[in-house]
Automatic annotation (TrEMBL), chain A:
Protein name: ABC transporter ATP-binding protein
Family note: Belongs to the ABC transporter superfamily.
Domain named ABC transporter: residues: 9-259
GO annotation (BP), single: peptide transport
Cellular localisation: Cell membrane
Gene Ontology molecular function terms on file: ATP binding; ATP hydrolysis activity
Annotated Gene Ontology cellular component terms: plasma membrane
Pfam families: ABC_tran, oligo_HPY
Automatic annotation (TrEMBL), chain B:
Coiled coil: none
Family: Belongs to the binding-protein-dependent transport system permease family.
The protein's name in its UniProt record: ABC transporter permease
NCBIfam families for this protein: Opp4B (NF045472)
UniProt cross-references to Gene3D superfamilies, sorted A to Z: MetI-like
Protein location: Cell membrane
Pfam families linked to this entry: BPD_transp_1, BPD_transp_1_N
Record domain ABC transmembrane type-1: where: 95-306
InterPro entries in UniProt: BPD_transp_1_N (IPR045621), MetI-like (IPR000515), MetI-like_sf (IPR035906)
The entry's keywords: Cell membrane, Membrane, Transmembrane, Transmembrane helix, Transport
Membrane topology: Multi-pass membrane protein
Source species of the chain: Lacticaseibacillus chiayiensis
Length: 340, 320
């Protein structure tokens, strides 16, 4: 079903380990994902699930002295894993743009907005100063800044949070990169602004036909914007598929729990569903068996003893679980749909 | 901005007024009066009383204060009892010495501290960083007077590379090249030690600033744009790290201008700090109160200067 020319990014068996003391611990453990042209791929998971680490590995922003990345990240017949910094500098900003979470911290307080957007153009295009200035104004109006000329001359602290996030987006899209990584772009914003920013991302994706990796912990955002979704838990992708498939037929116990943890207006329950426990820390990550098992004690140990592997439950819908077929999730009324 | 600066300067007038009253009262409260120090053999009590009358020392304090301020506004700070000359001229002469010494040690301070701090921060945890940090902590722990004395003994007396006191040798005539060079020669050692001893705080501020800023999100943004590391360092990290240094610059400059009491005393350098100490011990009140007032003024000026520098280098700070 994939046309090969549509494939933008092919991540295979990616491991990203951080040094803690003398050993490296994998924050991203054997992750394989693909990103196609013209799609928004959401990566969703709790804090500490490794989703931001995955993003930073793709764009190569780790401090390489304390990080070990193995596996393949294939882009344009080029493997980004282990690519030297000089070559990577030519890709960052030009082929991969990144949108960051906290728009105030992401901008240099001492530089004018225009200068900060222009910087990308300086290193990736042959434009002269005049052309760059023109492009900056163009970008500012593209991201919906009402007064581009004045904004280009202002400093980050003079703008509101929503405006700053638009600036961060303008920086990321300055060179029209085919791949855009958005790391929780709406987390630091008000709900009303969130919707505007997501609309903007969708507009950009439609206009530039980029592939967008949207990292979020908000399933509402996923449902609204994404085409495909990958659910991450403890450094691994536990379920992936189209948003429709995953939301309609959540198969991994973790996905189900996440979906149940969303507040719902029409629900009669007074209390919100809460997943017991927390994501294990890097040092305490179990190497064998299902990593989510300790948080669902009602599933018999026999159900998940062997190391879980990926199963294709439906076309393009994958789940990594040993027990997805065998058990009935007790507090899940959607489980009935599983048999269909 | 100019309006604000003008307003800040105008605010300094009542501040200086309060300071002058305080200084005057303190001077009045000190035991004895200026004439007790200048008592000469053969002077009778009647002569002293006549002198007191002549200098207006029998008038009520507010009249004395008014005439003091009135004279001061005309540039007349009174007469030094010890040096038998006008305080204005005396301070003016010392101020020139202190100014050049201050300028030289400030230059030395930044020439050493900025590269050292940048290297220590950029290569955090390396051998260079350890060497710089350990040296700066030792310097921070050594009392300045010990450091000055050791330098004076070693380079002045033992190796005899530098003169051990004064600001110029009497063999040169003012205006000649030899005179200028000799003044510089007298300044080198005190400027060097004063510069070096003040480096630790600047080095540490800069080192921490560089380390902090390297981990800032905006540096990550710059990297995600594909900006080369060298440019990221100069344009994003360094500029932000220099902010705290700039904030201190105003006070740094004025505190050096006030002259270092210890430095000038150890090196017998005829600057304002040394003048202050010697006037204090010889109860040369006109000089002492003028200097206290001047130091107060310099402190106020330093704060204003710091604010102005900050508003220039940091767009988030605007003095409105």
């Amino acid at each position: 079903m994939d046309k090969p020319e549509d494939l933008l990014l092919d991540v295979q068996h990616l491991h990203t380990g951080f040094r803690l003391g003398d050993a490296f611990y994998d924050a991203v453990d054997d992750v394989s994902i693909t990103l196609r042209k013209d799609e928004i791929l959401a990566i969703v998971g709790e804090s500490g699930s490794g989703k931001s680490t995955l993003a930073t590995s793709i764009i190569g922003l780790h401090d390489m002295r304390n990080t070990k990345v193995t596996g393949d990240i294939l882009y344009n017949n080029l493997n980004l894993v282990g690519l030297n910094e000089t070559l990577f500098d030519r890709i960052r900003g030009k082929d991969i743009g990144m949108i960051f979470q906290d728009p105030l911290a992401a901008l240099n307080p001492l530089m004018r907005i225009g200068e900060q957007i222009e910087e990308t153009l300086v290193y990736h295009t042959k434009m002269n100063k005049e052309e760059r200035d023109k492009r900056v104004l163009e970008l500012l109006s593209q991201v919906g800044i009402p007064n581009p000329k004045r904004t280009a001359r202002s400093y980050p602290h003079e703008l509101s949070g929503g405006m700053r996030q638009r600036i961060v987006i303008a920086i990321a899209i300055a060179c029209k990169p085919p791949i855009i990584i958005a790391d929780e772009p709406t987390t630091a914003l008000d709900v009303t602004i969130q919707a505007q920013i997501l609309d903007l991302l969708e507009d950009i994706q439609r206009e530039m036909h980029s592939g967008i990796i949207l990292i979020t912990h908000d399933l509402g955002v996923v449902a609204e914007t994404a085409d495909r979704v990958a659910v991450m838990y403890a450094g691994q992708i536990v379920e992936s598929g189209t948003v429709m498939d995953v939301f309609k037929h959540p198969t991994h116990p973790y996905t189900r729990s996440l979906l149940r943890s969303m507040p719902q207006a029409e629900s009669d329950d007074d209390e919100l569903h809460v997943i017991q426990g927390v994501v294990p820390s890097l040092k305490n990550m179990q190497m064998k068996g299902c990593r989510f098992a300790p948080r669902i004690p009602w599933i018999p140990a026999s159900a998940h003893e062997e190391h879980p592997t990926m199963h294709e439950v439906a076309p393009d819908h994958f789940v990594q679980c040993t027990c997805y077929k065998d058990f009935y999730f007790p507090d899940d009324d959607q489980a009935a749909e599983k048999g269909e | 901005m100019w309006k604000t600066i003008l307003r800040r300067i105008l605010i300094m007038i009542p501040q200086l007024f309060l300071l002058s009253v305080l200084v005057f009262i303190l001077a009045k409260m000190m035991p004895g009066d200026p004439l007790s120090g200048s008592f000469q053999q053969g002077q009778s009590a009647a002569q002293m009383a006549a002198l007191r009358q002549q200098y207006g020392l029998n008038n009520p304090w507010y009249i004395q204060y008014a005439s003091w301020v009135g004279n001061m506004l005309h540039g007349d700070l009174g007469q030094s009892f010890v040096y038998k000359r006008s305080v204005t001229g005396l301070i003016g002469e010392r101020a020139v010495n202190t100014f050049w010494l201050a300028l030289m040690s400030t230059v030395i301070l930044y020439v050493i501290a900025i590269p050292a701090g940048v290297i220590a921060g950029r290569y955090e945890g390396s051998k260079r960083d350890s060497a710089i940090s350990v040296t700066s902590f030792i310097l921070m722990a050594v009392p300045p007077f010990v450091f000055y004395l050791l330098a004076l003994i070693f380079f002045g007396f033992f190796l005899q590379w530098f003169p051990t006191g004064g600001s110029v040798s009497s063999t040169y005539n003012p205006g000649t090249l030899g005179y200028v060079w000799d003044r510089i020669y007298h300044m080198i050692l005190p400027a060097l030690v004063a510069g070096i001893i003040t480096t630790p705080s600047t080095i540490q501020y800069l080192r921490t600033g560089v380390i902090d800023n390297t981990n800032q999100d905006f540096v990550r943004t710059a990297r995600s744009k594909g900006v080369p590391d060298r440019v990221i360092f100069n344009k994003h990290i360094l500029r932000n790290s220099l902010l705290p240094i700039a904030a201190f610059m105003g006070n740094q400059i004025t505190s050096l201008l006030g002259g270092s009491v210890i430095l000038e005393t150890v090196f017998s350098y005829p600057g304002m700090g040394q003048l202050f100490v010697s006037s204090m011990t010889s109860r040369d009140y006109p000089v002492v109160i003028s200097l206290v007032l001047l130091f107060g003024f310099l402190t106020l000026l330093g704060n204003l200067l710091s604010d102005i520098i900050m508003s220039i280098v940091d767009p988030r700070i605007r003095i409105e």
